[in-house]
Every structure is written in structure tokens, then in C-alpha cells.
Specification:
By secondary structure, the protein is α+β, with helices and mostly antiparallel strands. It has helices spanning 30-41, 94-102, 116-125, and strands at residues 18-26, 47-51, 61-62, 65-66, 70-78, 81-90, 105-113, 130-135, 142-146, 156-161.
């Protein structure tokens, strides 16, 4: 397609002012997967811990109802993108659903937005179902997953409130352990 410009911009987008900052992968074994990313590509170190984290109310929901589940998470940063590896441990959740329906693989990408509440409302008003939400592992974090699988070829979108670093926002909560080198 030589000479064609495929740049797209739409001033009437549903949500504007977004930053892609995370790719989420759901796996059966987060430790093994993170070790392999380190061995194969030098990605790491990873912070590996269970969610919800001690001392933080997760305010979790699952399909609009209170959620009660546990996950093993592994986080590493590559350039400006955070890689989140998710291993469901117990309880009903969107990650276990994904593993059961699709097997392990790319689950979501996260968009950080400046006006989180309006972005969430815009998605819901557009008929895009909120399938999970809660608080994150960073001070002041709020997140919501939306079922965009029909319009984005099986990929889910997560929205997160932009954190401004004021008052410690954006820092890892104290109970999250430091990164480990494999």
C-alpha cells in the first residue's frame, strides 16, 4: 500500500486524552511466565505478589456485583509500557473466564485517562459493558474493564484514572514487595 496514509484521527472519539500504558496477559503460571520473559528477552525485574494487597480495600466488582477473588500478579516495565501478568488463584473473575474460554494469552490493554469518571460513563452510555472494576496497587488508582471483545477482535480494554504523583499518587502501595531478579 505504498503512498497511502493510514493515520486516523477523530475529534469526536468516545474518549480523548488517553495514554496506552499497559498490556495484560493472562496465564496459568505467572512466575514461570515472567521467568521465561526474563530468560528469553531480558524483560524484568518483575514485582510478583498476590492481589488484593494487604491493607488496601480492593472495592472489586465482577459483572456489576461485589467481587471476591485472588490473583497472582507480576509487573515489569518495558520502555513506557507496563507488562502485567495475571494468574487467577480463586473466586469468579474475568481472568478465570478468559482462561476457560480462550486459554492463556493477550487479555487487555490499559488506557490511562485524565477524566476517569466521565470516561467510564461514556463507555457505559455507549452500551459497552463494564465487566470488572476496583482499586489498584498504586496509591489513588481506580480501574475498570470493559467488554470490547466484539469490536476489538477479542481484546478487552481497561481504563485507569491518571495519577498525578501528588500526595504519593502513583507510587506502589507499601505492602507491594520490591522487584525480584530471576
Amino acid at each position: 500500500m505504498k503512498g497511502k496514509d493510514f493515520t486516523m484521527s477523530n475529534p469526536s472519539s468516545l474518549i480523548n486524552d488517553v495514554d496506552l500504558d499497559q498490556i495484560g496477559i493472562v496465564v496459568h503460571d505467572a512466575v514461570k511466565f515472567s521467568q521465561e520473559l526474563t530468560r528469553l528477552f531480558g524483560i524484568g525485574p518483575f514485582r510478583i505478589f498476590e492481589w488484593p494487597v494487604e491493607g488496601v480495600d480492593p472495592e472489586a466488582t465482577y459483572h456489576g456485583e461485589p467481587g471476591n477473588y485472588r490473583l497472582l500478579l507480576a509487573f515489569a516495565t518495558l520502555g513506557k509500557i507496563q507488562i502485567e501478568i495475571v494468574q487467577p488463584l480463586e473466586g469468579q473473575n474475568i481472568y478465570s473466564d478468559f482462561l476457560r474460554e480462550h486459554g492463556p494469552g493477550l487479555h487487555h490493554f490499559r488506557l490511562t485517562v485524565s477524566d476517569y469518571d466521565n470516561a467510564v460513563k461514556s463507555m457505559i452510555d455507549a452500551g459497552i459493558k463494564n465487566i470488572a472494576s476496583g482499586t489498584g496497587v498504586h496509591v489513588g488508582s481506580r480501574w475498570a474493564y470493559f467488554d470490547t471483545t466484539q469490536v476489538l477482535d477479542g481484546v478487552i480494554v481497561e481504563l485507569r484514572r491518571r495519577l498525578d504523583e501528588a500526595g504519593g499518587q502513583g507510587k506502589w502501595v507499601e505492602s507491594v514487595p520490591p522487584p525480584v531478579t530471576h
